[in-house]
Design brief:
With 103 residues, the protein is mainly beta. The protein has one helix spanning 65-68, and strands at residues 20-22, 41-49, 55-57, 71-74, 79-81, 86-93.
Length: 103
């Protein structure tokens, strides 16, 4: 009744690193240029899934640093990319007042 049996189980497999990256290094810095208040400027960057498995992600702004600087993006909903699939992310700068230059 109070016996126990010790069983050894071998678990094998390999990890799969998450590799959601920009398609090219030039996309790391986005320059919206000089704009007038109320004028919208859009730029896009391309993300690529270099993982061997599908990746689900959602872009966010935890500290609201970009929102304070009037930068918005789409898609803003959770997105899934299959291996080697790409997704264009549109970055939109829509200042309502004068905003100091930032990086």
């Amino acid at each position: 009744v109070n016996d126990f049996t010790r069983m050894y189980v071998d678990v094998r497999g390999r990890g799969c690193p998450l590799r959601l990256e920009l398609a090219s290094l030039e996309m790391q810095h986005v320059d919206f240029g000089v704009t007038i208040g109320g004028e919208s400027v859009s730029k896009s960057v391309r993300l690529v899934n270099r993982s061997p498995r599908p990746v689900t992600f959602q872009l966010g702004d935890d500290n609201e640093e970009l929102t304070r600087r009037c930068v918005f993006w789409s898609p803003s909903h959770p997105t899934t990319l299959r291996p080697r699939e790409t997704c264009d992310v549109e970055l939109r700068f829509l200042p309502t007042t004068r905003v100091a230059p930032f990086k």
